[in-house]
Amino acid sequence: MAKMTLEELRNLRESKKKEMVQRDGDEKSAQIIIGMGTCGIAAGAKEAFDAFLDELNSHEIKDTRITQTGCMGLCFSEPTVEVAVPGMPRVIYGNVTDKVARRIVREHIIEKALVSDHIFDKPAADIIK
Amino acid sequence: MHATLCDMIMDLVQNSIEADASEITLSVEETEEKLMVVITDNGKGMSAETLEKVKDPFYSDGLKHRHRKVGLGLPFLFQTAEMTGGTAGIESQEGVGTTVTFTLDRSNVDVPMFGDFTTAAMTLMTYGFDVNLKIERSIGEKNYAISRAELNDALGDLNDAESLVLLKEFIASQEADLGTL
Ligand SMILES: Nc1ncnc2c1ncn2[C@@H]1O[C@H](COP(=O)(O)OP(=O)(O)OP(=O)(O)O)[C@@H](O)[C@H]1O
Ligand SMILES: [Mg+2]
After folding, report:
1. Is ipTM strictly over 0.85?
2. Which residues of chain A have pLDDT under 50?
3. Which domains does chain A have, with CATH numbers?
4. pTM for the whole structure
5. Pairing between strand B97-105 and A119-121?
6. Helix B161-178 and helix A6-19, axial crossing angle in degrees, nearest 10
């Protein structure tokens, strides 16, 4: 791989933007928030980040943002990841390994079904209308 | 605690972000014998009294972890340096900023593996908000430098999946160009 310049990076980004159909606003896109505090890092949060990115990329899903937060206070179930897909309850998943990250992309983000066996927390049923 | 030196570096850069720094420089230099890392920030800094305490694993500022009073980032660094005959230092001035420096002997068997710098750099470049992180990296004679401001300028929103993929490719190509020792 030849060393990429900033100019090449900018051009790549712009050509990809043109390919993309204009969507109506950010509200529609899914959000993945990865707990990247000390415990998260030690437990493999970076590997989860890589897996999310790879899986999203291989399914050509563009309208998803991945952000990070510090310690979520759930050290015992790190890596923890919060997923917010419009029209679905916000969910916190625990013990998100490479495999689980890929399942979250396929099941939660693409098929809109919760990955129930890794849910750490979600709003109680009565507050989801 | 941490499996790799990259994990340790991430932790230290996060400390700078958490100290509300707006400018952070991370320099990672590898030579045949040594690994040298310098992290400089213009964050809130520490008083002399706090500085004394941070080497103690049973000290954390009580804000970051509400249920835990233990900070692990810095003690882990000092412990690793001590165990392997390396050096580690921290200088800080309240209201001015902090510099953390360490040098490790690459041939010492007890030095943790280096780890995956590409992912660590991508993660740090997209962690937190409004922090201009600069990364200076060199292996032997080869080097590169990248800053969050210029990446932002080229890619726009760094946190969307597409930017992240390109960002990772970009950093990977810089790393590949460095080659190995
Ligand atoms: N760059 C810095 N600028 C200002 N204060 C710092 C910096 N680095 C560390 N500190 C102070 O030293 C304390 C100990 O840091 P350390 O990384 O060991 O633990 P922590 O950040 O509190 O917790 P953890 O890293 O485990 O999440 C911090 O709570 C903070 O008060
Ligand atoms: Mg820390």
Report:
1. no
2. 24-26, 128-129
3. 27-124 (3.40.30.10)
4. 0.88
5. unpaired
6. 150
